[in-house]
Design a protein that fits this description.
Layout (H helix, E strand, L loop, with lengths): L3 H20 L14 E8 L11 H7 L3 E7 L4 E7 L13 H18 L3 E7 L3 E8 L2 H13 L9 H11 L5 E6 L7 H10 L1 E8 L11 E5 L6 E5 L3 H25 L2 E2 L2 E2 L5 H16 L1
Parallel strand pairs: 3-4, 3-6, 6-7, 7-10, 7-11
Antiparallel strand pairs: 1-2, 4-5, 8-9
């Protein structure tokens, strides 16, 4: 028999994820990603106005008159959730940890995918690949994903997005939509991230807690990096220390946004303890217009 606390936590996350999914127009926001790929349908004779880039030169040479390839849009979406479960995800000061927020949104996106009859998979990572669940489409499958998001105990503490992306690119060969949920406390992933976006469609969700950027005035404080376990002692009563910390964190966020911009990746910031569904729906709508333009 399952412990009551287990069922309570699982049910709570499922309810929150379902509410967010419904606010995202019952998954309709995810349909903006459909049609990224093309399936070959047939070869037909060329007619004036056809795109000459679609001419099938082998058939044209064999039959001595021009033929073009006709394709149809792929309607089924393959969606993958890459979720960072490193040690920094356990930080949270607004009634919710960063990992809990990531699990909530990932669950909402998964529910939206199966409503659209699409396949969704999950890859959890730290400084290594922690867990991979292949894309499928069923409500039982989504419940399994939500369970894994909530209860997986990571073996690693650090973060290596490059490792996760390389693993993903080696096992998923058809174009997919890839949602990356992470606080991006990492470095050296820029090249593989850009390459992944050329092959698939990557959307980034940086997860932020306000206290990471704004130090409270509480005197001398001892801080520990949850991933490296490095300890730092700082005097938060010094205004210069607090403003310097904020500048450092702002600079880091600006550099991350520039990385996304250069790679052509859409990004939406998530803040712990802050409602986000309606703004995310608007983000998806704007992203759709940018893809069509």
């Amino acid at each position: 028999m399952l412990p009551a606390d287990y069922l309570k936590r699982l049910r709570s996350l499922e309810v929150r994820a379902r509410l967010v999914s419904e606010q995202l127009m019952s998954g309709q926001s995810l349909s903006v990603f459909k049609g990224r790929g093309l399936d070959f349908a047939e070869v037909r004779e060329y007619v004036p106005g056809d795109d000459v880039r679609r001419i099938d030169w082998n058939v044209t040479a064999r039959l001595r008159r021009p033929f073009v390839k006709r394709h149809v849009e792929e309607r089924e979406l393959v969606m993958m959730l890459l979720v960072d479960v490193s040690a920094s995800g356990y930080f949270g000061t607004r009634g919710q940890t960063k990992r809990e927020l990531a699990a909530e949104l990932a669950g909402a996106l998964a529910l939206g995918a199966i409503r659209d009859n699409d396949r969704v998979g999950l890859l959890l990572y730290t400084d290594r690949v922690e867990r991979y669940i292949p894309p499928r489409k069923s409500r039982i499958h989504v419940t399994r994903l939500i369970h894994t998001l909530l209860f997986h105990e990571p073996q690693g503490r650090g973060t290596s997005l490059s490792t996760a992306l390389k693993f993903f690119n080696n096992i998923i060969h058809r174009p997919a939509v890839l949602f990356v949920l992470s606080d991006f406390h990492d470095s050296g992933f820029e090249r593989v991230l850009k390459a992944s976006n050329q092959r698939h469609e990557v959307i980034a969700f940086p997860i932020i807690d306000r206290r990471e950027h704004e130090l409270p005035d509480v005197g001398v404080a001892v801080l520990q990096d949850p991933e490296s376990r490095e300890i730092l002692e700082i005097d938060t009563s010094d205004p210069e220390v607090r403003s310097g910390w904020e500048r450092l964190q702002r600079s880091r966020q600006d550099a991350l946004r520039e990385t996304f911009r250069r790679s052509g990746i859409g990004a939406f910031d998530l803040h712990t303890g802050t409602p986000y569904a309606h703004k995310l729906r608007t983000f998806f709508e704007h992203h759709s217009k940018r893809r069509v333009a």
